[in-house]
Amino acid sequence: MRLYKLLSFLFLIATLTSCTLTENIYISDNGTGKFSIDMDGSSLMAMAGDQLGDQMGDDLKKNVDSTFTFKQLFEEKKDSIAKLSPEAQKELKKLENFVVNTKMNAEKKVFLMTLSTDFKNVNELQDALQALSTLQKLESNGNPSAPFSGGLGDNNSELSYTYDGKKFTRKAVIDKQKLAAKAKDSSADMSKMIFASSNYIIKYHFPKRIKKVSNPSALFSEDRKSITIQYPFTDYMENPDKLNFEVEFEK
Description:
Layout: H1 3-16, E1 20-27, E2 33-40, H2 42-56, E3 64-69, H3 70-76, H4 78-82, H5 86-93, E4 99-105, E5 110-119, H6 128-139, E6 157-163, E7 167-174, H7 176-183, H8 188-195, E8 199-205, E9 210-213, E10 219-220, E11 226-232, H9 233-238, E12 245-249
């Protein structure tokens, strides 16, 4: 199966069903680390796996266990990408080093997709789902009225991370102009309904013991080096600044 066909189908599952998305960050002593987004859409496979296979053709009835890089995918779609604006191409460039691993089994009712990358400094990370939304727009041919053309992670914000050994921050700054335009989008209510039962979970792992976290809902690991925070996915999509928080570490 062509990479783009596979990825488009996986995005469709993730976009059209309630699923759990988990954002993982692992930071080592020297500041390098690993970032990943895990999407679990197994609930849809449990409810409608057979019907999806019928709709999507014989290729997608087969079990999938696939690993590829976005660099491979971009080579496949290079002509379409060349027609995008410089800003959109820059967004996609952020995904170039991401690896996509997918596991789909209709019989076992499993659908898992992980997007992961290594980083040299957490400050270089951006919102992977925002960049994915640019890729999804290729599928809609830039038509803003196409269903979910805004993309799975298009929450009209700019996300940044900082870490200096003493403090870690996760901060999303909302673009109010984009937010106002989205409020007029007729598909917004449909998206809200679909994502109402989805969750966005943050799991961050640090090389130092945590002194305190600005979010009172944070759960600590036994060694106080990891935190887990769960949000409704509607918060990520509609109020991304609710996911902002700071972590301070013990000396």
